[in-house]
Amino acid sequence: MQSLLTPKWVLSHLFAASMVVLMVGLGFWQLDRLGQRKAENDEIRTASEATSQPIEDLLDDPDVLDHTAVMVAGVYRTDLSFLVANRTFDTQPGSWLVTPVELTDGRLAVVSRGWVSRAIVAGGALAAIDTPTADVVVSGRLFDSVDGGRIGQGRAPLPEISRIELDVVSELLGAEVVDRWVQLESQDPPRSDLPVPVPPPTLDDGPHLSYAFQWFFFSISGALTYLYILRRRLRESPDAA
Description:
This protein is 35% helix and 25% strand.
């Protein structure tokens, strides 16, 4: 037994034990992520399945969840349209086309109308996308402002921003906007084929459970393999007795 207690073997034992503990910890971390994802999915499902309300009724409620069903009634301000750059759809690169809606009280609500391909943006075909000029009613999902918005410096046909951070949007447009924005799902009068509405997230459990099983399997396999190595060492060592 003494041969397995030399400094070299002690370091080996510590390394093996730390790797097993690490992999077990990663397994439990994936189970924790699974619980978080289920909770987030439940929140999204509850918010999106609620009765749709006018945006004016939701702006002063600090407890409104992202993905809450909402209606926006007003007139599109095409003169204030802009793009959210680097958005993908079915793995294809493109942008979101965003056009504020002027509400009946004069305030501006930012509405992301959907995705357009990079080819459409680069080819100057944005102007051909049909936009209602009269009153419009948008149905969609409500979102809070996000961080990380930066104004683009490129030569796109419309102003560009990296993310819908509403303070930065106000700076980009030179006009105040309400403190939440909307992802369009449908509109009346009906929209054309473009832009393509951004689909809601897939409410599944993701790969977390399978990842957890993998980490637990690796930890058990690693422990058994190391014990097998020690067993062979004991058999082969001349001073094992």
